[in-house]
Amino acid sequence: MSETFTKGMARNIYYGGSLFFILVFLALTYHTERTIPERTNSELLTESVVRGKLVWEENNCIGCHSLLGEGAYFAPELGNVFVRRGGEEGFKYFLPAWMKAQPTNIPGRRQMPQFNLTDAQLDDLTEFLKWSSKIDTNNWPPNKEG
Ligand code: HEC
């Protein structure tokens, strides 16, 4: 092996290393793209889920809440609120009741505004949050309180 580190060697490491990591990056991107439909249960994406996402966006819920870690950290994470507040049996009752009860005006507690959503919008929102909770996030967040 040569004693000196030549320009040619540096160039080979640079190009070889870049090519190697570009290939790793492309392979991982391909893998992610392939697994997204399965991890997000895209077959469960109903019209109602899609409408629920629109309600979520139009009312800027993300301005206070986070969803799978994205968003604001003023109010609780909602990616797993379905699991935390009733699941299959209870969540469809919890969410409309919660939304209608706001603001609670409990002193010392952060307040959530009243959005005056219709029953149909609340149904769609319920479906959207239910669908979101089923996304395979490698068990994130680590506990169900978000
Ligand atoms: C101005 C900030 C703000 C906005 C905007 C907001 N929220 Fe909230 N939300 C809060 C706060 C604060 C709490 C916690 C209140 C408490 O615990 O008393 C909360 C709690 C909740 C909870 C209960 C969470 C739990 O763990 O029990 C749900 C569900 C919820 N919000 C849904 C929504 C939805 C859906 C929207 C959009 C339509 C929305 N929020 C928009 C501030 C907000």
UniProtKB/TrEMBL annotation:
Keyword terms of this UniProt record: Heme, Iron, Membrane, Metal-binding, Transmembrane, Transmembrane helix
Q: Does the keyword Cytoplasm apply?
A: no
| Record-annotated Cytochrome c domain positions | 47-133
Protein name (database record): Cytochrome c
Span-the-membrane segments of this chain are 12-30
Any one GO molecular function term: metal ion binding
Task: Recall the taxonomic lineage recorded for the source organism.
Answer: Bacteria, Pseudomonadati, Pseudomonadota, Gammaproteobacteria, Pseudomonadales
| InterPro entries xrefs | Cyt_c-like_dom, Cyt_c-like_dom_sf
